[in-house]
Amino acid sequence: MASSRKRPSSDLAARVAAELARHVPRGARLTLALSGGVDSITALDILAGLARQHPLTLDCLHVNHRISPNAGAWARFARASARRYGLKCTVRTVDLGPYRRLGLEGAARAARYAAFARARTDFLVLAQHRDDQAETVLLQLVRGAGVAGLAGMAAMRKAVGPTVLRPLLGAARAEIERYARERDLAWVEDESNADERRARNFVRRRVMPLLVELNAAAAANLARSAAHFAEAHELARALAALDARKAMRDGRLSAAALARLPAARARNLLRWTIAEAGLVAPDTARLDEILRQVVGARADAAIRIALDGAEVRRYRDAIWIVSGHAAPPPAFRARWTGRSTWHLPELGGTLTFKPTTGEGVAARALGRGPVEVRLRSGGERLRPDGRRPRRTLKALLQESAIPPWERERLPLLYSGGKLVAVPGIGVAAEATAAAGERGWTVSWAPDRPKLPGSAKAMIK
């Protein structure tokens, strides 16, 4: 641990106060990610002081990655540090297993952000600063990132879970360390920060000093470049939103409309569409391959492209981004217990029952026997229109334009062993509620694609 005794002279607290005034409404709840290092300890000292001036609720969250032999001691230190300010610090121990493919550093980061995404708070406060931003830009640059990656970290970002706030992003590392020494703060040093096999440490310890020799303002200039890239990214998003107005059909991106755009704008719109679905946009090579397939394949081709836990599909000119579920269990059956919202994870969606009068499935029809959900097995027939004969469900599904992959997991509603309704298709005429009769409208909503742990959507 480190400490020193000098009179405080930094205006850091005033600048953090300005950030809070700009972004945080009165009475909001803030949770500080408290690692115990100098950056987060400084943020703790500043925020605890400001909590009285800018009415807000403050607590802390420490993530234990169980990598270092000192991890337990760091968790205890974080709790004790928060307690000195009269604050609670929750410790979350994370499992890196699901993220191992990202390497140790990437896995720790993804698991940490997954824990952040689950925090029950309005704002998740991170103590990242200007030097962190400069390092991020350099790392993204050597990876060949586009403007979204080179934009670095945002001072405030609405994400999955709480809004991410970085009130120290404009401050230099040296300034934060000076504040901590002047305030006689104590912090822990992570021994892994000296390991230059880790990319960020290599940049911090070897690359940045050389750049500072070239230009003393290198870190500040890189951070300023990140702001320029962020502005360019916002302009690209605005252009994509304008293009989407003409290229969307019934809420889906039209492959034909995409093909009519210039290549750069087509890539931009496809990237934007993927991001709007909650996914991290793929690299340029992968994006070009997706664009080639969805635009260039023949009309009846079955397009199915795996993408970060989801799938890109095309059906009748429409581009779909759907959850990449495993095939549903064969001969699947589940019994309704009467609840209005019925999540069926095996089928990847939710059935909703809404009480109505004079429409939907008649209550009497659901009282004939056990109400079950089943899947298609072949040969089912339904008569949703009493003026027309009973027809095969296969024909009705084809006419309804329901994509083939959704038909495979579409729940069929049975009562007393008889098919009474198929969401999106209709209700059997003999089971339909008459005028003035109690009934239920039954709707089906497939799950939206989700990233593993919802972590990636928070990281930037």
Question: How much of the polypeptide forms β-strand, as a percent range?
Answer: 15-25%
Q: Structural class per helix/strand content?
A: alpha+beta
What is the CATH fold-level name of the largest domain?
Rossmann fold
The top level CATH class name of the largest domain: Alpha Beta
Number of domains: 3
Distance between the termini: 30 Å
**How many helical elements?**
16
Uncertain parts: 3-9, 451-457
Indicate the percent of residues in helices. Answer: 25-40%
Largest sheet: 6 strands, mixed
What Rg do the Cα atoms give?
27 Å
Globally, the shape reads elongated
How would you name the CATH homologous superfamily of the largest domain? HUPs
Strands side by side in the biggest sheet: 3-2-1-4-6-5
Please give the CATH architecture of the largest domain: 3-Layer(aba) Sandwich
What does this structure look like?
- The N terminus is likely disordered.
- The protein folds into 3 domains: 215 residues, Rossmann fold, CATH 3.40.50.620; 74 residues, Up-down Bundle (Chorismate Mutase Domain, subunit A), CATH 1.20.59; 114 residues, no CATH class.
- The protein has 16 helices and 22 strands.
- The chain has 460 residues and is α+β, with helices and mostly antiparallel strands.
- Strands 3-2-1-4-6-5 form a 6-stranded mixed sheet, sandwiched between helices. A 5-stranded antiparallel sheet has the order 7-8-11-10-9. The protein has a 5-stranded antiparallel sheet with strand order 12-16-19-20-21, with no helix packed on it.
- The protein starts with 11 loop residues before the first helix and ends with a helix.
